[in-house]
Write a structure and sequence with these properties.
The protein is α+β, with helices and mostly antiparallel strands and about 290 residues long. About 30% of the residues lie in helices and about 25% in strands. The protein has seven helices and 16 strands. Strands 8, 9, 12, 13, 14, 15 and 16 form a seven-stranded antiparallel beta sheet that branches. A five-stranded antiparallel beta sheet has the order 1-2-3-7-6. A hairpin with a 3-residue loop joins β1 and β2. α1 packs parallel to α6 and α3 crosses α4. The radius of gyration is 18 Å and the shape is globular.
Amino acid sequence: MSETAVHVGSGKIRELFALDADRLLLVASDRISTFDVVLPTEVPDKGRVLTGLSAFWFARSRTISPNHLLAVRGDGRSTECRRLEMLPIECVVRGYLSGSGWKDYLATGATSGHVLPDGLLESQRLPDPIFTPATKAATGHDENIDATAASELVGPDRFQEVERTALELYRFASRHAAERGIIIADTKFEFGLDDHGSLVLADEAFTPDSSRFWPAAHFRPGSPQPSFDKQFVRDYCESLGWDKIYPGPELPPDVVAGTRARYIEAFELLTGISFGAYLADPEVVLR
């Protein structure tokens, strides 16, 4: 860690340090959260998977959106990033009906203001990807909101720009992933503004924490899908009857090992790079 780095904040997974007036250091820990609660058990190398995958996508999506990445450090879990003014919404794109989108649909036939066709099944592919913003909750759970509410938070013109950019990023990554046998069911982005007011992709991109990754070979709509993401941990926690309030449950060794294996498999399938090669030279994901 640089001696000039000053700790300025902690997220569920990441630690944030100020390097100077223009740069931040984002360090991804091995913590894992589910239902917005950080669990007491860590998953080894998880932070390196998040950092490496995000850097891989940042390097390949710059023509769609500029991003905050400046450099990946040698520990494989730290990135130097531009400082931004973050937008106050979570930017979610759904290509398939799952998670909170499925729960909304069961209750109302819609999600985030998008009225969907009757008779859809859980995990079914949507006719077209949809943008479903959510609030950023300081505590508790994020809540899905519609375009009107999101526009009030960021302004109508900025909302349209964010929606257009998020959908284009999702389509780009979904095509890449499909060629490698992975369905990106949905994903979450965060955007910020630079000193010129330009929109910039930040935080992370298309990781097992921010996305649902499903193996295409096993896809069967009508029920939850096997996954390469932290759904494995969610399912375990659900099986305990946990009330989803802090503190969360400890994870047994088999769940930790299974989660680590899924994260690394997703990394290797999506990047075409062995995880060992990344650990030896993190900048390999930028080439």
